[in-house]
Specification:
The protein is of the alpha/beta class. The longest helix is centred in the middle third of the chain and has 15 residues. The protein has eleven helices and seven strands. The protein is globular and about 45 Å long.
Length: 238
């Protein structure tokens, strides 16, 4: 059974929730049957969105590679990063570390395609949106993307950076209004495309039609490590 390495701290609460999901999704009847996880939580890694947008020159890739190599040296056979924006650096990280790094967006494309979804709304950081991460990957699966308008995207960023990342509980009414806008423009499913937004699913009962990309990543990680509980196969909210 592979050991899972986690490049964490991006942000810390999302990493904590990812560990919870890994445990919940595991088929185990005792402590000893759970998968082995190696975690380095390094919140000092520079902000991914600021770098992608050119606001900061602090490149987050080198310290992520450093953490990944450390985890590899400790015996990790597979890596996961519970930060969607960090997937902008995916290929650079995988090449620099020399170990498979799970690609949450690609796995989400696979999941949506298998569910027959052709159009997805994206709730994510400005860095993820402007980098076209979802566009490029989903195009391979024939899935169209829908993004919030300018005002709604500001609301999404406020939820992520000024509410959840600061330790507050996100405003669910603001979140639902943005989601309704995306559904109104043809989205069949709305994606929680930032791991901070995943905490809204933890704290609230979301309306039907939402898929948490962090849950997809956790599902894939547990499957690859041989401990997946098939009761978690259906992830889109009903």
């Amino acid at each position: 059974m592979k050991k899972l390495g986690i490049i964490g701290g991006l942000g810390p609460m999302a990493t904590t929730y990812f560990l919870y999901l890994l445990t919940r999704m595991s088929q185990a009847e005792s402590d000893q049957e759970h998968m082995e996880i190696l975690l380095h939580s390094k919140p000092s890694i520079p902000d991914r969105t600021r770098y992608i947008l050119g606001v900061s020159r602090e490149n987050p890739a080198p310290p992520m590679i450093e953490v990944g190599r450390e985890l590899k040296s400790m015996g990790a056979g597979l890596l996961a990063i519970p930060c969607i924006t960090a997937h902008y650096f995916h290929d650079e990280l995988e090449n620099g570390i020399g170990l498979k790094v799970l690609h949450a967006i690609r796995e989400t494309g696979e999941y949506l395609k298998s569910a027959g979804v052709d159009r997805a709304g994206i709730l994510a950081t400005d860095g993820t949106v402007k980098s076209g991460l979802f566009d490029r990957v989903f195009d391979q699966y024939g899935i169209k993307v829908v993004y919030p308008d300018e005002e709604s995207q500001r609301t999404v960023m406020d939820l992520i950076y000024r509410q959840i990342k600061t330790g507050e509980q996100g405003n669910i009414d603001q979140f639902v209004r943005v989601g309704e806008e995306l559904f109104g423009r043809g989205a069949e499913v709305n994606l929680l495309g930032c791991t901070e937004l995943s905490l809204l699913k933890r704290d609230y009962v979301l309306p039907a039609g939402y898929l948490d990309v962090l849950e997809v990543l956790a599902k894939c990680a547990v499957q690859e490590c041989g401990r997946f509980d098939p009761r978690w196969n259906k992830l889109i909210t009903k």
